[in-house]
Amino acid sequence: MKKKRRLKYIAVLPSFITLMNGACGFLAITFASRSPVLGWSLTFLRRSYVTSLAVAGYMIMLAMVMDMLDGRVARLTRTTSSFGGQLDSLSDVISFGAAPAFLMVKLLETHLDKIRLDDVRLSMVLGRAILFSAILYVICAIVRLARFNVENDEDEAAHMKFSGLPSPAAAGVVASLVIFHQQFLQRLIDSSSEHYGLFQVVSLSAFPVITFLSGILMVSRVSYPHLPNQLLRGKKNLASLLAIFAAVLLIIWNIQLAMAVGFCGFALFGVVRWIVLSIWKRQPKKPQAATPE
Question: Which whole number is the average pLDDT over 104-110?
């Protein structure tokens, strides 16, 4: 009979950062479950008013920071282990699987309450579509992380690309759009204007579709670059430096818009690149003329 192995030692600092990732995901669910009408006034910032849904989105963003740090700290301290990888995936299920889906559901529940659809059947169809997209997103996140654990190599520094949209990026698409919706778009559109109803309907239709597509991209085989490893390693040309500088300026000007453009652009980049490469491979190659000896 084979003797079971017992875990004797645990790397404290990387494991603590990973657990903070899961804690941020749980806080995102907690804040999203509160009434979105209540706001958070930040006294150290002028004209700052953050809804509970926006706070939940920021908690998901903070979980991404923790997710990036734990692997770096583990490699710097030379404490990488299989336990750390499994712990990271379990935390990611909460922060990048359940939390974004729950945030989307709570946001659209407030929209349904504001619109007050007279057709009961249409309201039921929309409610089921929202719930279906959220459940599918969570299932795809679980499958994505389980597949990553099986196919992953322990040397993360050697990774230059991902097979499928990474779960933090998929969560970033949903969370950044919620933050953009709560803190930027609602400032532009007054609730008393005639365009506010159209704005609510468009948001009600777009969020389930975006969440659904983000889940499908996670389990797809579309190739995505590993940005930290590709951008921060080695020497880069002048165009890369200018792109990074433009991204920093956009973040300084409006961080909500920068997050939405960045995450959605990254998700679309992989799809467009996959389509272009598929069309390029299908084109028949021209036979080369034989050169005289």
Answer: 88
